């Protein structure tokens, strides 16, 4: 296990964290940042997180209801408390913010948000099937256009004919965003406030794995140019209109490792920020040669960034579906990391989430789930309407895998988790399975790293059909599933279903699974 992390910065070794202690299950319980701040995580007898403290800048305590759902977050730093309420399928229906305002959400039977009330403001969401077509209430009047594949293609306000247009490449990745004129955009996440979104054209590039490699800002085309079919999106045209470009480097598992600054128009701009991770969460950002330390909430969402003397240089208030940045700028600037796996784009007020984009004002994605109904009937939903308990690092899923052999016989079962390996990485439990045996699973059947991949599992079993049944689960639940699997004896022939169901049994996302029921 990791006991310390150091980084060489401008030729000098700097401490990122040290003195790491672990619980028996392999979870970190405490460590010391390089600036001297001690981070402590306490758990109850039931293995639930009770509190997080990080030096003098962060102190969070967590409460739970009788159904094991998070009911409160007390912030001792500013004396505020958030409280939460749920419906009978565990979707979040009420949240009291740090400022004392209450927010309420209602849903239809498959999880589409129907209403959102905050203070004296009330908003109604309108749908055409699965497609969100508009949001109205108070100062908010937003209309959306959707293409035949379910992608958001236009956002307009107050009945305007022009707004923000979204364009996609053949792989359904958001490729260009165009706003021909400055637009006043009101949304529900900011309680109906109406900032002016500046005109521009933005382009986005991706690698073979769908990870975003750059975004760039350009002077906007006129509507006349677009209507006349001017090839404004050609490489030569975009290069002449470009104002800046920012490039990104991701790990194979999706974490953002480094980025250039968004203030240069050169193709080979120097790296400005390097991110350091521990246990699946960002713990430091090295920016322009200076180490800054990231203090996260229970989800791994940054709440505070502190410098070498433990003074805050950035701070946010994290709410259920969004956040409000309270302090940024100066020599540090902004921090765009949001929910785990997400990156904030100020030009659209959306979060890039690997395979699609998350809209905090509606609590849902702007595109349907690439895996279709395997991710659930509501293909736009984010973590089942409960973002204080679960995360979705890549905009996709965690799954139970079943292979179907000749005559429709289901002959093998395995379990995939996106964050279950104990350090925030993927894990695939393949008891008595040939895929696990071929990928280092040994007698336990546990596959981690790059081989813990649903697509690779399906390719390995390409002569069979692979059924994928998916749930959004918290990291803690996924780690519990894998820990339980590792406590089981080695599976014998024909015991895969018994072992997989035993690993899943007793977990809240699988209430009907009993050991040996597959």
UniProtKB/TrEMBL annotation:
Gene3D superfamilies given in the database record: RHS repeat-associated core
Keywords assigned by UniProt, alphabetized: Repeat
InterPro entries found in the cross-reference section: Rhs_assc_core, T6SS_VgrG/RHS, TEN-like_YD-shell
Domain Teneurin-like YD-shell positions: 274-369
Alphabetized PANTHER family for the sequence: PROTEIN RHSA-RELATED (PTHR32305:SF15), PTHR32305
Record protein name field: RHS repeat-associated core domain-containing protein
